[in-house]
Design goal:
single chain; 2% helix; six-stranded antiparallel beta sheet; OB fold (Dihydrolipoamide Acetyltransferase, E2P); mainly beta
Length: 198
């Protein structure tokens, strides 16, 4: 594991802080006159989901967390128990659940039986656990329900609510219809573009 200086602690990095793995969500290095520089960060605990603000000073060094990826298959969501079920892609019988804290919001744009990348962390005792999911930035999904476009309807700013095949509803342009395949930004949940039909 490598050591990071205060100004190398940047977004999308994973660090060990207070014996836990954290993802750096935001960082801002600044220097005021006569004062030493510092890095004001926003961190998310990969075990609990807790988000904190933390300032690293010029003499601070942190260990980069040893985060690995492995492919797992998303099976389904059990609404009654609030459980997300996954399996080993090579063995569908090897099933396990992950909490919504670990899974995050990106799962709403993943179809059942599709592969995703699990982020794994090995602690000082040698125990490896899944601490998060890495999603593709874009997902192509079928629109299963879209209200008809009403001419002259500009009060909504040219947007309407459509439902996607995963069951999630998003805002999309008025020209989107049932049966269209659209591309979604999984980080923001926003409509990106419509896929052209072949």
């Amino acid at each position: 594991m490598s050591l990071l200086t205060y100004n190398e602690i940047k977004p999308k990095k994973f660090i060990l802080h207070e014996n836990a793995p954290w993802e750096v969500l935001d960082s801002q290095v600044s220097r005021k006159q006569q004062n030493k520089p510092y890095n004001r960060t926003r961190l998310r605990n990969l075990n609990t989901g807790q988000v904190i603000d933390w300032t690293f000073h010029v003499n601070d060094k942190v260990e980069e967390a040893d985060i690995n990826k492995k492919t797992i298959t998303y099976l389904y969501f059990n609404n009654k128990k609030d459980e997300y079920w996954f399996s080993d892609p090579k063995n569908q019988q090897d099933r396990f659940t992950l909490s919504s804290v670990i899974v995050g919001d990106g799962i709403k744009f993943i179809k059942e039986k599709n592969p995703v990348d699990a982020l794994t962390f090995t602690n000082t005792n040698g125990e490896t656990s899944i601490i998060g999911i890495s999603y593709p930035i874009k997902a192509s999904l079928l629109v299963t329900d879209a209200p008809p476009n009403i001419k002259g309807d500009t009060a909504t700013g040219g947007r309407k609510t459509v439902t996607l095949e995963t069951g999630i509803s998003i805002q999309a342009p008025l020209f989107i219809n049932t049966g269209d395949i659209i591309i979604i930004n999984t980080e923001t949940g926003d409509y990106a573009e419509r896929e052209e039909k072949a």
